[in-house]
């Protein structure tokens, strides 16, 4: 006795159950999402990516020429923010200066130990420049300090029973 279980899909925008397959729609530059017919009016419908074509048992790779926007995205150089694991604390200049003085280092001594320029240490302590990921790790190791925000603060908010923000909380739809 086999049972047929119908799997219900839900609109990714409003959360309503969809009776049909739904439409793949891009709204305001966001990534395409599967939405109901009602929400499909809010964006432009896009084509679903095609599966690779098979011929005589061997897969044939179907490639399309990249658009100018996707080529720019692929060629984008990575900046320092791509490598940072978290946010640097706001008071990093004071933390670095206090830890350096507690260890008894001058700015020149600290730069020598870390194999950095003295000007970089001065810029960190003035707050003119934030340390890169590699510099941050060197500073933390030598001065026994933590320069990254801990994620514990964010986790406490989530565990405290407060619901997280959803797209529906932020979205305001203007109807004509």
TrEMBL record:
Biased amino acid composition, Polar residues: 62-74
PROSITE patterns: HTH_CROC1
Every HTH cro/C1-type domain range: 96-151
UniProt-annotated stretches for the region Disordered: 57-76
InterPro entries assigned to the protein according to its UniProt record, in alphabetical order: Cro/C1-type_HTH (IPR001387), Lambda_DNA-bd_dom_sf (IPR010982), MJ0586 (IPR004451)
GO MF: DNA binding
Source organism superkingdom: Archaea
Protein name per UniProt: HTH cro/C1-type domain-containing protein
């Amino acid at each position: 006795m086999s049972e047929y279980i119908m799997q219900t899909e839900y609109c990714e925008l409003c959360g309503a159950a969809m009776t049909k397959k739904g439409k793949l729609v891009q709204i305001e530059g966001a990534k395409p999402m599967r939405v109901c017919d009602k929400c499909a009016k809010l964006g432009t419908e896009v084509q679903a990516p095609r599966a690779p074509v098979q011929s005589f048992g061997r897969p044939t790779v179907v490639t399309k020429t990249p658009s100018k926007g996707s080529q720019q995205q692929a060629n984008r150089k990575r900046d320092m923010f791509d490598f940072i694991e978290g946010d640097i604390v706001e008071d990093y200049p004071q933390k670095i200066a206090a830890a350096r003085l507690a260890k008894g280092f001058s700015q020149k001594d600290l730069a020598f130990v870390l194999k950095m320029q003295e000007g970089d240490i001065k810029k960190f302590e003035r707050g003119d420049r934030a340390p890169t990921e590699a510099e941050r790790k060197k500073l933390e190791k030598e001065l026994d300090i933590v320069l990254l925000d801990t994620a514990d603060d964010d986790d406490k908010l989530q565990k405290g029973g407060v619901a997280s923000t959803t797209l529906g909380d932020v979205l305001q739809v203007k109807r004509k």
